[in-house]
Amino acid sequence: MKKSGFTLLDMLLVITVLSLVLAVGLPRIIRSGFLDQYRVYLAAHEVASAMRLARRLSVESTVAHRVYMPTDTNLTYEVQRFEGPDAEDWVKVGDTKTLYSKIVLSRPDGENVAFGSDGRADCTCSYEFTLNAQVSRIDITYSTGRAELFIE
Q1: Model pLDDT, residue 52
Q2: Residues pairing with 81 in the sheet
Q3: Does residue 75 lie within any of the structural domains?
Q4: What SS3 state is found at 77?
């Protein structure tokens, strides 16, 4: 009678080999910048998604929306809706999100991109996210309000 399956010795051998491969390979993956590249891409993707949401909400509700990023930190952002006649009358929509703390964000003059009811952005500008040598960029086009994500 033939028994099929794995023995305990087979399982231990496979686990030992996998552990050795991970012990050697994982530090190389981390040092290669893969993790930094992923963190930069993820941060830029999150902010680009928030910009697309603000644009969509502006068109749907015919009320201006923006992605607000305080200039003192550059690490948090939130979608806001315009509620009044004064330039300070913005109300938060949803939660405040936080980016990975070591990412450096450069943006034009500390601007917060706003979208009108026609879907247009109030500027043509770029936001650049950097971590070590890894860079991702969001380009916003005034005429269309489109937020495009680029990995450099």
Answers
A1: 94
A2: 65, 91
A3: yes
A4: strand
Q: How far is CA 75 from CA 34, 69, 96, 126, in A?
A: 21, 8, 10, 16
- Residue 110 belongs to a domain: yes
The total of other beta-carbon atoms located within 10 Å of residue 145's CB is 23
Residue 118, domain CATH: 3.55.40.10
- CA 64, CA 57: separation in Å to the nearest integer? 8
β-sheet bridge partners, residue 135: 130
- 33, 63, 67 from 117: Cα distances, Å: 41, 6, 15
- pLDDT tens column, 84-96: 888 788 999 989 9
Packed helices 8-31 and 34-61: angle between N→C axes, nearest 10 degrees: 70
> Does 61 fall in a domain?
yes
Q: Which helix (H) or strand (E) holds 105?
A: strand 104-106
77 - beta bridge partners? 97
In a domain, 43, yes or no: yes
Q: What is the pLDDT of residues 131-148, one digit of tens each?
A: 988 899 999 999 999 999
